[in-house]
Amino acid sequence: MQTATPFPRHIAVVILATLACSFAANHIAARIAFDHDTGLLLAMLCRAGVTLLALAALVLWRRESLRLSAATWRWQTLLGLLITIQSFCIYSAVARIPVALALLVVNLSPIMLALLSWALGGPRPTSQALAIMGLILIGLVLVLDVPTRLISSDAPDGQWVAGILFSLTAAAVFALALWVTEHKLSSMAGSVRSMLTLILVFSASALLGASGLIPGGLGLPSATVGWIALGCLVLLYGAAFSTLFICMPRLNIARNAPVMNMEPVAGMLLGWLILGQMLGPLQILGGFIVVGGIVLLAYRKH
């Protein structure tokens, strides 16, 4: 089998940066949709359904095998459920707090993955890696505006607290999903793994919506703007996700993946330009510390 020729690095970086901006814009569109009464589960269903069709076409075109062992099916099912929870949590966070803040907290998943891998018998993080993690946590304290909130006499904002908890849960669940992918499903073709994961996300979202456990989960947008935003989030996510898998053999992901960490920075800029969500100067500084630290960790690994 002939190996795909990698893109020149500057082209690969531009493609990955564009995809990161598309993923960020998907969350901006999601916030607009939620502000116009779009159900969270409806957004998950539409996003997973359209992306699933694109990946299924890719799998059929490549004639990739769907034969899995019983053990692999169990881990694949777990992965699908984890990504369902992660998707629900990050959209729940985006609906409550500024998009950039939610994305910055979710981007703590590499730290959680390193600690989880260590706890499950993997290598202990080096002193340098631990120092970078400490720096990232300092940045997170600034991002969350903890000093101001500690000296404030106002009661904690319930929506803010819930949004942060949803973001932290999304980060932790995604770290576990990454561990499962790396240690139990690494031999599978990425497009097959992602297609099966999206089937489970779609199915779980549909069952949850039909159960009525989440009031308004399948609610339709109440205005034209909401419908447009719903369409945009589906197109932005589906196009970015599909492009990533189609181009992945030529993107040299091992070397260039840290570029994707610009997603929260793009979310910060788009949130300000489109939604008027402005973070304070210390929060912006903290955001760049968090992103810079994560990029440092990624480059150390590779």
UniProtKB/TrEMBL annotation:
Residues 12-144, 163-298 form the EamA domain. It is a multi-pass membrane protein. Its main location: membrane. GO terms for cellular component: membrane. The chain crosses the membrane at residues 40-61, 73-94, 100-120, 129-148, 160-180, 192-214, 226-247, 259-275, 281-299. InterPro entries: AA-Vitamin_Transporters, EamA_dom, EmrE-like. Gene3D superfamilies: 1.10.3730.20. It is found in: Membrane. It comes from the Bacteria. Pfam families: EamA. Keywords: Membrane, Transmembrane, Transmembrane helix. Belongs to the EamA transporter family. PANTHER family: EAMA DOMAIN-CONTAINING PROTEIN, INNER MEMBRANE TRANSPORTER. This is Threonine/homoserine efflux transporter RhtA. It comes from Stutzerimonas stutzeri.
